[in-house]
Amino acid sequence: MFKWTGSKKWLRHHLKDMDELLELFAGSAWISFSRAQTCHLNDTCVPLIRVYESLKNDKPKFLHEVRKNFSQIQSASDPRAKYYELRNQFNVRRDDPVLFCVLLHSCFNGLWRTSRNGFNVPYGGDRKLNLETLESIPVEKIASLTCNPWEEVIIPNDDCIVYADPPYAGTHTIYTSTSWHYGHNEKLLEKLSGLPNPVLVTLMGSEENYKLLKKFDLKYAEKSRTFRNGPSKGKQVKELLCFNDAAYPFLDRVKYILG
Predict the structure, then answer these.
(1) Residues 169 and 231 in one domain
(2) At a CB cut-off of 8 Å and minimum separation 6, what does 81 contact?
(3) Is residue 176's pLDDT more than 70?
(4) By CB count within 10 A, which of 96, 113, 208, 230 is most buried?
């Protein structure tokens, strides 16, 4: 699947197969592609959604263009300089899906991070291009693609499972020019807890989030993980899989705690 910061690859082992799923913060869409028969993907990162559109419309052509542009960096007399040239080129419009993939495969640690001036991750050295990750994406499952704020996303029907993996509030790392706070979590959980749909949410285990889960009567399961990069490298944190009663039939091997 698509490499993306904060991927929930681990979560697929704790969920059963689903008919229809909507992801409000799609990212690499690991849950949709590994568990859903039909999916609706939303993310405010425009070039990411355009990648999925391009793969769905003409996968061979898109992969050819990514390979061709990536080779410009690898074959350049000064790959670092070529990388920054393409990064500047991308930041003029900020929606080119080909350059988006090229930069992710060339930047430091495959990290996507933006500021008001655009994508700002430095060159990552001589990295290999692995198109198998893009080629393996089952884009035939995608029923709809949108780039809306989560509040504006239209839920297809009451049976569609809604999954939200918002940015982690209160962490040291900011990946976008508009940071996410606990107030955003509260607004999100208030809206989702009132839906008739099965609802799944992943959050970081923190005192503030535990209080919010209790406030909105949501159950949760805990999983420990370790930071692999950054100032908190080696630090263990708890990740929460939160859900309402309607979502319980879709959980697998989960010991839950009442919210």
Answers:
(1) yes
(2) none
(3) no
(4) 96
Counted domains in the chain: 2
Question: Is 226 exposed, middle or buried, given 0-12, 13-18 or 19+ CB atoms closer than 10 A?
Answer: exposed
Percentage with pLDDT > 70 across the chain = 89
Say if 257 falls within a structural domain: no
**Both tokens of residue 77?**
């007399």
- Rounded distance, CA 256 to CA 242, Å? 9
Q: What is the C-alpha to C-alpha distance for residues 211 and 215, in angstroms, rounded to an integer?
A: 6
Q: Looking at the chain, how many residues does it have?
A: 259
Q: Are 86 and 69 in contact (CB under 8 A)?
A: yes
Coil vs helix vs strand at 94: coil
Query: What is the reported pLDDT for 175?
Result: 43
Q: What is the pLDDT of residue 235?
A: 67
Closest alpha carbon to 21 in 185, 142, 187:
142
| CA 11 to chain CA mean position, Å | 13
CB atoms within 10 A of CB 30: 20
